């Protein structure tokens, strides 16, 4: 028998056949994110530290889904019911997602020191490039609610090449802070900060009903830290056909009787109708992602398919009909036409959508 010879092997990380250094770097990043799945990271920015949580691994040639919550909330209280919904699992298996928490709103956040100057919404938008650079992500699909929708829209205006699409819930593009809005709406009522935030988040009908959902979020907001920071912002100055507009596909979402319904309708009238869909959700109140996660999930799937992703996805509630119908509506002044419209009714279960000539039907 031939004598066995001892061979010394040097441990190293060679490239796989045909693998480029860039691909190896992406694989290493994917492994790091997989190990850190669901853990919160923080990164320093010119306006302070920002925290974010990453789930999943990057998919080749696919953007990350990046979320930004509304005032008084964090990513869990704003988005958890949506992203834990059963039908949403098909989406999150196809995309890595990044949930950003505004400074001081993350779980366990310390109280800000006396005299702390909270970043403006525009400055919060300027923190996002630091997050993407840390993760080495080049493009995103943004999902924002309220103030978070404003932040992502501002980011998209400043960095259009990095945003493939936006889902903006309850966006108000006008130049006023949420405190000013809430104080105006709640004239004659209590002016405590938690109640003002609740008035920003939910409709008066929901607040009057004092449902279990309202009680839950009143408790969350009452115990949240760092709420006494009034943010300042500039008008987004959207112009239909002008230079200041969103260049990517946009889905605007608002609930019926929601506090921000008029603002979202106005925003819709200012965006490119060939790029914008408008979804008004029935029976959803002020926070559709909390009250109607199933319907919003199906609309989101359809939105992604329109962008060329998830073409083989099974639409369990949402299906495209070949019915020829042109859906358009005049704006308040009768002179401006709305963009493509997704108008939802719990009775009819119909979503009318562009491009013109197609209808989405919902069976819930």
Q: H/E order of the elements?
A: HEEEHHEHHEHEHHHHEHEHHEEEE
Biggest sheet, in brief?
A: 9 strands, mixed
pLDDT averaged residue by residue? 76
User: In what range is the share of β-strand residues?
Assistant: 15-25%
Distance between the termini: 74 Å
Unreliable runs, pLDDT <50, ≥5 residues? 6-13, 185-190, 317-341, 343-364
In helices, the fraction of residues equals 25-40%
Number of helices: 13
Number of strands: 12
Strand order of the largest sheet: 1-2-4-3-5-6-7-8-10
- Which overall shape is indicated by the principal axes computed on the Cα atoms? globular
Describe the structure.
By secondary structure, the protein is an alpha/beta fold. The protein is built from 13 helices and twelve strands. A nine-stranded mixed beta sheet has the order 1-2-4-3-5-6-7-8-10, with helices on both faces. A three-stranded antiparallel beta sheet has the order 9-12-11. Helix 7 crosses helix 8 and helix 8 crosses helix 10. The protein starts with 20 loop residues before the first helix and ends with a strand.
Please sum up the structure shown:
By secondary structure, the protein is an alpha/beta fold.
What are the defining features of this structure?
364 residues; alpha/beta; 9-stranded mixed beta sheet; 3-stranded antiparallel beta sheet; 13 helices; 12 strands; disordered C terminus
Tell me the layout of helices and strands:
Layout lengths: L20 H15 L4 E6 L2 E8 L8 E5 L6 H9 L5 H4 L4 E5 L19 H5 L2 H8 L4 E6 L1 H12 L4 E7 L8 H8 L7 H9 L2 H6 L2 H11 L27 E6 L5 H10 L5 E6 L6 H4 L1 H14 L11 E4 L18 E4 L6 E4 L4 E5 L2
Parallel strand pairs: 3-4, 3-5, 5-6, 6-7, 7-8, 8-10
Antiparallel strand pairs: 1-2, 2-4, 9-12, 11-12
Helix pairs in contact: 7-8, 8-10
